Amino acid sequence: QERSREGGRLCLYSNNFWTWVKFLRPILNSQKYFKAHDTDIIISTLPKSGTTWLKALTYSIVNRNNYSINQSPLLISNPHDLVPRLEFQINQEDLINVENTNSAGPRIFSTHVPYHLFSNSIHKSKCKVIYICRNPLDHFTSLRPFLLENEFENDGEPPLSLDESFDMFCRGIYPYGPFWEHVLGYWNANLRNPDKLLFLKYEDLQQDVVLYVKKIAEFIGLGFSEEEDDVIKGIVQLCTFENMKNLEVNKTGIFSGNIIEVKNCSFFRKGQVGDWANYLTPEMKEKFDKIIEAKLQGSGLKFKYSA
Ligand code: A3P
């Protein structure tokens, strides 16, 4: 019980230390066993930063010559089923099985791990990494309902209050490490090697998704020709929040990873920039502003908090 209480400091929802230990083993396995190919694309994010959207866009860009928009597998499958997460392949055999994934084109995987926890094979190969982040307050605001809706294992204990979990977020107590360390790890990696890592922000995609679809395509070496303007429009339209949210598969389906089950609908909540203002007080914003300003000082990284 003591350990469980202490463990409550580890995450934003669960009071149970062991819930989160469960997430460590697959991370370690993916580090140990995953063998990146030079042509792989790794989508990396903190949860609730736009992973689903980026997966759908990248999958559509990569497969645009394999399927027309009205035959896209995204119409019947959740993006998380099409782009597997490395940490969900929890044993060696599963990781070897992914050798066959996306055999028609570059393989696409996702991960939530901090940059410094990538397997050596990702660092050493010529694979490309695309990172998307989101302003921390929208990230925090989006995560809580997601965890609550999916009733993440909590051993029957009540979830932490908003104030408690915000306090932990401010102190950097979080399953994937402090927010600022995650984003800065990828930000600095992009500065060091922009050909290896593309750094995106959810708010920028919301502002001009066509521009970023072109950037992603160029980055992975699959740039669009001038004749493909309609293809770009089709991809953007297919992947809009409204369109994806209203697909039958995303209204009713369940995504099963090896350690969790998630309702597909919970990946599509509001899809807005600035929703934090409906949940967090001006005092909370002020407190976090001070923290993030100090943590990001000198990095050049800034976030946009309203649309
Ligand atoms: P909100 O909870 O603020 O609505 P992730 O995919 O990393 O889990 O992030 C989920 C967040 O992205 C949710 O934010 C969700 O609504 C939003 N989202 C999902 N699909 C989207 C899309 N196609 N376009 C824009 N936002 C999307």
Write structural notes for this entry.
This is Sulfotransferase. Keywords: Transferase. Its EC number is 2.8.2.-. The chain has 307 residues and is of the alpha/beta class. The protein is built from 15 helices and 6 strands. A 4-stranded parallel beta sheet has the order 2-1-3-4, with helices on both faces. A hairpin with a 4-residue loop joins strand 5 and strand 6 (261-263). It is globular. Bound molecules: adenosine-3'-5'-diphosphate (A3P). Adenosine-3'-5'-diphosphate (A3P) is lined by residues 45, 47-53, 138, 142, 239-241, 244, 267-271, 275. Adenosine-3'-5'-diphosphate binds next to helix 3, helix 7 and helix 13.
How many helical stretches? Answer: 15
Instruction: Give the helices and strands as they follow along the chain.
Output: HHEHHHEHEHHHEHHHHHEEH
Strand order in the largest sheet:
2-1-3-4
Envelope shape: globular
Number of strand elements: 6
- Global structural class: alpha/beta
Question: What is the fold's blueprint, element by element?
Answer:
Layout lengths: L1 H6 L9 H17 L7 E5 L5 H12 L16 H4 L9 H6 L10 E4 L8 H5 L3 E6 L2 H14 L12 H9 L8 H14 L4 E5 H6 L1 H11 L9 H10 L2 H5 L2 H5 L1 E3 L4 E3 L18 H15 L11
Parallel strand pairs: 1-2, 1-3, 3-4
Antiparallel strand pairs: 5-6
Bound molecules: adenosine-3'-5'-diphosphate.
Organism: Penstemon davidsonii
InterPro entries: P-loop_NTPase, Sulfotransferase_dom
Protein name: Sulfotransferase
